[in-house]
Amino acid sequence: MKSRKLLMIPGPIEFESEVMQCMAIPTPSHVSPDFIDCFANSLKLMKDVWQCPSGQPFIIAGTGTLAMDVAAANLIESGDKALVIATGYFGLRYAEILKRYGAQVDILEAEVGDIVPLELIEEQLKSKRYKLLTFTHVDTSTAVLNDAKRIGALGKKYNVLTILDGVCSVAGEEIKQEDWGIDVVLTASQKAIGVPPGLALLVASKNAMQVFDQRTSPVANYYGDWANWLPIMKAYENKQASYFGTPPVNLVIALEKSLQLILKEGLDHRFDRHKRAGKAMRAAIKALGLDLLSKNEHVSANTLSAPLYPSQIDTSAFLKSVNQEGVILAGGLLPQLKNNYFRIGHMGSVNKNDLLATVGAIESALMNNGYSHELGLGTTQILKHF
Ligand code: PMP
After folding, report:
1. pTM here?
2. Which residues does the record give as substrate binding sites (predicted)?
3. Ligand 1 within 6 A of 11 CB?
4. Is 198 in the pocket of ligand 1 (CB under 6 A)?
5. Which residue from 67, 272, 333, 382 has the fewest beta carbons nearer than 10 Å?
């Protein structure tokens, strides 16, 4: 009998076997010709996946938080005004990061499970001259999806740099960075990009790079300073060896493979598949009589779902019980509601069978922990949507 459990948390996710094979090959030199080609190609493929042909991609060893830190460190100078649109835990984290670099930060915080209305964002942008605004495309703590296209357009209208935290969205939710006028789109490898944890990935617009060039003070973060990384990215793009910090070689090889698989599937197809998975999972959860933390379909992410526990259930035993059924899910992340909900990741390589197994495990665990319902109502929804 297979003992492997299905990992359905919102990152790390289940990775494609072709990607995992890249992690197992003997590590080549970071300046070997083959690896230089691989790095150059990964940078090029990032521009395709981000849909930002004139952008500057960066591949840096680190996590998603480092990608957030790097964008803030390079674009903020002490005293700059920044606006954070927070739809959960990671929005608030961005405010803390910006403050470290001396930004004067205002926060527009959404009600839990909702977005900040665009009219409110526009009012705020009218009332004060900001240098930069950040928003979380999908906040992994609430499963809320922001309208990136319209926030990007507001950034352009008010001449404010925009940073999209796409850690839980890039390669899962539709993003057209260049068309939508977003200045930085950042992510980490372990989510919909489909590579084990360890890569901080971002693409900066021409506009963002110009703002960086015009800085009058040094970047207050040595490791993250684009002045250190830009020559390295440029060298790899030009198929030349260069060194600032040793790249995580196998992860970059795995990244190239995963980006190739993403583009082979086709971006539109991939975004549609995620939409279908999100819709199916929300329908399954509702069919079981559970509510979701995200307020309505319009603001619900397609890369993860956040169901609320029914009141009858023994919440402490529930996730253990799902695990015994062979599926690993995540608990709540918002400190004030931690024990009121759980989270299901459905991004990257996720398929119909994964969704069926997950909903089946949830149905059994609900039943075993004091919540009676008719078995099969959730899985039927998955079948209906696929
Ligand atoms: N932003 C979002 C939206 C995230 O989901 C996460 C990770 N869950 C992060 C930032 C931080 O990424 P990391 O854990 O890789 O530092």
Report:
1. 0.98
2. 343
3. yes
4. no
5. 272
